[in-house]
Amino acid sequence: MQKEAPSDGSGRVPVLSVKDVSYWYGSKRALDDVSFDVYPGRLTALLGPNGAGKTTLFSLITRLFDAPTGRIEIDGRSAAEWGFKALGPLGVVFQQPTLDLDLTVRQNLRYFASLRGLRRKEADERMDRALDALDMRERIDEKVRSLNGGHRRRVEIARALLHSPKLLLLDEPTIGLDVPTRTAIVQHIHALARTENIGVLWATHLFDEIEPNDDLLVLDRGRIVARGEAKAVVAETGAEDLGGAFKLLIGSDAEEDVAV
Amino acid sequence: MTFMHYFRAFNGIVWRELLRFLQQRERLLAALVRPLIWLIIFAAGFRAALGISIIPPYETYITYDVYITPGLLAMIQLFQGMQSSLSMVYDREMGSMRVLLTTPLPRWFLLVSRLFAGVLVSLAQVYTFLLVAWLCGVELPVWGYLVALPALVLTGMMFGALGMLLSSTIKQLENFAGIMNFVIFPMFFASSALYPLWKMREGSLILYEVCLYNPFTWAVELIRFSFYLKMNWEALGVVVGCTLVFLALSVWAYDPSRGIQQRKVAAPA
From A21's CA, which of A231, B73, B78, B223 has a CA 20 to 30 Å away? Predict the structure, then answer.
């Protein structure tokens, strides 16, 4: 039986619930008792410097590793209890590019669609829609190798959306992209969360990707040091903006690793 | 997860592997050139020097090139198994393995599908080689080409599973060439691929024992016997057993909760 996921008291049911999750690499603690929820229709930004534990957290949510402690639920299903079946409602864009460079955009997307059990016709229709939304339709028969970094990212986002996920995970998806491409992708994902009612967990270390109304988690050395709406977090710290709040929250790490 | 989901995912994995293989024409060429050099140059030289007595499954005297053909087929499959393993390490380094492993299907199914895709590629190479060998005058029993197919599927699975197991232990792409040489050449030479085991025993008893413990020997014998419409039960047992062991270890290694693939130790709270 699928358990009813707990709500936050306002009737909202999280599409991702992470509770008391810790993780170690040998004796080094990468995540320390991390708990948070992601809600449908909301973009939750996971902000932290390099090495804060963002990618480890993503690996646990996607079951690349199993969480030894705590509980992770995706759409009400515990990853530990449901195993691979819990991954059904999940779309992922990893930090590292994961497209097959020698295949075309169409071949890459069809491959993914088959892994998700989509029929060819249905897959092709969804592919066209997703690529249209990202202005990539005309590149569909080009090999991925011939695309630039921004276009590859768009294809990865289109791929992550093919099976209409309820939860979208993006691990620093704009790394290495120019500002206009970054802006376009950020806007698209924000709009997608609202219009498609998708819960989005967006790991980043770039403040300008976060809107004041987004939910914000600040992760530092494996611990969540602040949570709430971004504007509320800024207000609580008394800083002028998110950059200032971040510096106050995590100290010297902020200057080394995080940029506007 | 419906049956159709499994079916489509399997098709997708096989289709991707075949597509990649077809796009790498030099891979087919390399797969053919290597055994052809053995067949045309090596076998021609040794034909005069080495006589093959009548040993099962043969019922008449055969030429040396006919003798080594099953070994060369196994060599093609072993190389393909290693190539598949290299491809998995590459996919892991390039990130596309993550896409496969985050699919909502059992990991054993994903790995077996991937393995089977590699077997199909190896069969394409094997039958192309057999055609070229036939054009070069190496003729095997006609029905053998068909009857040997299940044996070739099994041996392909064994080498693919071995490659998959290796891929789970190799951390970096750069280490791969060394590992491949370390596996392929000892397996090939210390087997019945080039000489019958009784001839090996005359030369060195220790080497003979090594050959007996080498799964490659049994793969070669399974293929050899099946081409002559005979069954070598011992070889079948070893090949099936090794396939199951290699596959079980691979699935274990790729399991997110305990495999060596995780490469990181999670301490208790």
Answer: A231
